Amino acid sequence: MIIEQIYTGCLAQGAYYIESNGEVAIIDPLREVQDYIDRAEKNNAKIKYIFETHFHADFVSGHVTLAEKTGAKIIFGPTAKTNFDAIIAADNQVFKVGDITITVLHTPGHTLESSCYLLKDKNGNDYALFSGDTLFLGDVGRPDLAQKGAVSEEDLAGYLYDSLRNKVMTLADNVIVYPAHGAGSACGKNLSKETVGTIGNQKETNYALRADMSKEEFIKEVTDGLLPPPAYFPLNVKLNKEGYKDIDDVIKNSARPLSVKDFELIANETDALILDVRHQSEFVQGFIPQSIFIGLGGTFAPWVGALIKDITQPILLVTPVGEEETAITRLSRVGFDNVLGYLDGSFNSWKKANKEIDTIKSISAAVLEEEIKENVPVFDVRKPGEYESEHIKDAESTPLDFLNDHIAEFPKENTFYVHCASGYRSIIAASILKARGFHNVIDVTGGFVAIKNTGIEKTAAVCPSTLK
Fold this sequence. Notes:
The chain is of the alpha/beta class. It is built from 16 helices and 24 strands.
């Protein structure tokens, strides 16, 4: 038996390759599926089943394409409805893969169709639980993503409580837990950086699995402090239910090198967004006016999904040379398939053509310490939890996720400063603000990590309004 976790850090997502006696099951595959096919062919094995733990909201799964390329059967848990051929399994239905079996455990709560998959070894012993978004390490799935009609997030949280107590916590302590996500995912609140655990460890350390916890306490704790989900989540769910383009076709149509002239022409004649994905240190020194920065070096795809509201938005790319296909692929993972092309030769081509450029002014934390004495406004674009933990006294909390909701709070004429934890998110924010006409923004290099080493007065307090 082979079990491989294929973890994608940008999405904080774990897919799984399971092989036994020449047969393979894939759980929650990424949209680009060739890697799974290559692994199976290398081992002279055949992909038999594709198990989906639920309709994912944070990425486009590869189930449809993988089934088309291999003939494998797609399996969802009870109540799922799709626009493509799939086996809608019954609770406790068993699927054989070589010498092992995989049992469907219907665990509604994160979504109504959410299911875990219990792998039993060739001797029939419970070996591993592929827990999807039902159980994470240190947390459980948020219950607010699949509200329908009279079903509220409190109802879903109650279902999740029952699912965990009746289906998951009854398993032996030595059963391995393979979750769908780790730290950084927006599908939970407090996910661990670890990506593999055990049932026993989770019973000891996961707040949601406390033995003495009542359903009422669970519902309150799981629903408390939930921020609104990113705008692209329901759009990805729709794609995962209805189907989508083959990623190979998306890359073929999108990977178009454009001369400066053609790039500028398309930008002027369409409503295309210019997305610059270089490193933030390069971006601040020079970029095409009106560009938005979201660097490939960070959690690129989730930030694209959170900040670009429409997955059909036409996009023109400025990438590091050689990273064009990488950017297109990572955009497609969250459903952004409408890339019109990329600037051939990257930003250097734009400079060589003597085209207009823009820059972002940055200062060090030490300089901010001097400037802040003049009572200049400071805006903190970290998440509310980070802000609550510690922040510059009198700084405003304007989380990057919801920057568009705070635009009216930024000064239109007087200088103001933005910072995040280390510098990635603040440059995203500054680029958006510059595109909106706020040319009086200054970024603090190194973010709060650098600010902590200064004498700037800091405090900890509950962030008002942004928690709602």
